[in-house]
Amino acid sequence: MDIAKIVEDAAFNLLRQAVIYLPDDVKQALKKAYVEETSETGKTQLKAILDNVELAEKYEAPVCQDTGTIIFYVKAGAEAKDLDKLENAVINATRKATKEIPLRPNSVDPFTQKNSGDNTGRYIPFLHWEIVPGNSTELTVMTKGGGSENVCVSGMLVPGEGINGLKKFAIDEVIKAGAQPCPPTILGIAIGGGADIAMKLAKKTLLKPLNEPNPNPEIAKLEKDIFEAANMTGIGPMGLGGKTTVLGVHVDYAFRHPASFPAAVAFNCWAARRASARINADGTVEYLTHKMKK
Amino acid sequence: MVVYKFKTPISEEDIRKLKVNDVLYITGTIVTARDQAHRRALEFFKQGKPLPLNLEGLAVFHCGPVVSKEGDKWIAVAAGPTTSTRMDIFEDEFIKNFKVRVVIGKGGMGKKTTDAMSKYGAVYGAFTGGAAILAAKAIKNIKGVEWLDLGTPEALWIFEVEEFGPLAVAIDSHGNNIFTDIQRKVEEGKQKIYQKLGLSP
Questions:
Q1: Do A84 and A139 fall within a single domain?
Q2: Which residues 58-77 of B have a C-beta within 8 angstroms of A?
Q3: Structural domain count, chain A
Q4: A294 pLDDT exceeds 80?
Q5: Is the pLDDT score of B121 beyond 90?
Q6: Residue A167 maps to a domain
Q7: The model's pTM
Q8: If contacts are CB pairs under 8 Å, which of residues 139-168 in chain A contact chain B?
Q9: Do B170 and B122 form a contact (C-beta atoms < 8 A)?
């Protein structure tokens, strides 16, 4: 059994699913926003988004031309075989996907400004590793748009201000970002750990479906409060005014140092592209977020 | 809200008819340019070198498309707008020197660009961010590509389009800018949001 080939095919399929087919929860949220939007210009924008989502599926083409920076989240089973071959397999899948789907080449050397042409380069695609019990490996891809990445922000808040400081930080950043991240957006917010940990958690929460609030009721309430506050701003679809500025808010946390209150706000555009699969020890692959089209 | 359908080259007289919140569809030629192409075009102008094509009366599109090549022919697969604010540092000179009549993008542009639009007669047409297939379907033909050495997202793609839109006129040639209006309203409403979140001002 050629595990490397199985992983490569699975990663290619995940990339294809992610960039063409928006997850159902995001589609439902966009449809709801369209029905509820009262601003004429805002409604026109949401209509164009929904039409575009449908066209992408019909023509099997990427929903947005910015097919993003490619990030893989790996939950590697401690007893899974050939994990050392996984990184190379997803790099191969990325090259193939860039050529065949196609994806936009989005990987540029910051010093020479040269585009590698195939979405790979130093640390790209990026892999986040986690070891879990068992012999199967779960692979998730996020293709993260540049417009929404450009407004992601982390800050060191004042511990004495507590959660109120976090609420203010989040809402101020939504206002500052305005039209830039392609609203309606999804917010991933995290506190604690350290500067890097807060941002890592914030971005990772963007993988959660919109209809899955935090299991802790207090945190779920905070998500709801920030969601409602963001939609009070009036920034609206594409920043042209309206009721829908965010489609959802996810909050996560780590314990913090007594002197520190690291916080991060990660934005995702409405084209919130993600897909997951489980690769079993017997070489079978289960697609978890999308139905595999033959 | 009035719906306009213009063919390129667009005259200054026609462009001045547009007001913010109108909707525009363009048929004819639009040319993509992002950060690097803007920078190079302005360098060419400074050195007295001609651009690969005359942009007068055309639309410049802030876009880095997904393209594929079939034989010798380029095809636009996905072609939505990129964030325009990055081009704010170039756009006033670009409008002044090359006489483009429409700037297409997303996210809006600032005061310098708004002033240039009102002075030289141009508008900003907001195309829905991410609506890449909607845009690609309006592109009937890729007439050419220049400056491919900048990479495919940054190259100058020359598109022949039919009823490209809807473009929400978000900056007109009379000094109006929807984005800055919304920003002002958002700032004005901020205290109410703080109150709702239980924050002291």
A1: yes
A2: 63-68, 77
A3: 2
A4: no
A5: yes
A6: yes
A7: 0.93
A8: 145-147, 150, 164, 167-168
A9: no
ipTM: 0.89
Domain extent listing, chain B: 3-196
| Minimal CA separation from A136 to chain B, in Å | 35
**A171 touching chain B per CB within 8 A:** yes
**Chosen CATH of B3-196 out of 3.40.50.920, 3.40.50.10540, 2.50.20.10, 3.20.130.10:** 3.20.130.10
Look at residue A65 in the predicted model and tell me its pLDDT. Answer: 93
Mean pLDDT of chain B: 96
Average pLDDT of the segment spanning A175-198: 97
> Measured between alpha carbons, how far is A232 from B174 in angstroms, rounded to an integer?
29
Rounded CA separation A246/A236 (Å) = 8
Where are the extended beta strands (E) located within chain A?
69-77, 126-132, 137-144, 153-156, 185-191, 246-253, 262-268, 273-279, 285-287
Taking residues A218-231, what's their average pLDDT? 98
Are B182 and A236 inside 8 Å of each other by CB? Answer: yes
> Does residue A91 sit in the same domain as residue A228?
no
What is the per-residue pLDDT for B127?
A: 97
Shared-domain flag, residues A92 and A212: no
Mean pLDDT of chain A, nearest integer: 96
Nearest CA in chain A to B188: A233
Considering the domain boundaries, does residue A54 fall inside one? no
Domain that holds residue A206: 148-268
Q: Which helix (H) or strand (E) holds A63?
A: none
Q: A139 and A17 in one domain?
A: yes
